[in-house]
Write a structure and sequence with these properties.
- The protein is of the alpha+beta class and 146 residues long.
- The protein has a single domain, classed as Roll (Thiol Ester Dehydrase, Chain A), CATH 3.10.129.10.
- Helices cover 21% and strands 37% of the residues.
- Strands 1, 2, 3, 4, 5 and 6 form a six-stranded antiparallel β-sheet that branches.
- The longest helix is centred in the N-terminal third of the chain and has 11 residues.
- It is elongated, with a radius of gyration of 17 Å.
- InterPro entries: HotDog_dom_sf, MaoC-like_dom, MCH/BMMD.
- It holds the Pfam family MaoC_dehydratas.
- This is Dehydratase.
Length: 146
Amino acid sequence: MLNKPFEHFQIGESWISRGRTVTESDIVNFAGVSGDFFPLHTDSEYAKNTIFKQRIAHGLLVLSIGTGLLEMAPGTVAAFYGIEKLRFIKPVFIGDTIHLKLTVTDLKDKGNGTGVVTFQQEIIKQTGEIAVIAEYKFLMNKKERE
């Protein structure tokens, strides 16, 4: 989806990514990298006594995996511009397969050879449930730079 210049995006267009299964190794590695060893993610005995009844993936891990599902082309993406309205709606468990849905909701020409594309992002589980929702913004290069 992020493989074309700014002026080729249209409000309302959507894109769906391939799937990716979340593994125990993902959770353990993310805990190690982030330093977030909260027991809901890393302690199965603790997690059994929560509303989830099992360990869940870190919300930021799920968000990061979603980012990895984006198709980005060097030269078209100038920079990641930000996240707004981020919500973690449903838990993602070990073994869940998630995919990403992006829908263009806004286009702002920056007038400097770039423009900001705003997407409604949904990270969706194999059950069809939305796990994460956010507004993503990317600074995209134009085909012809000013």
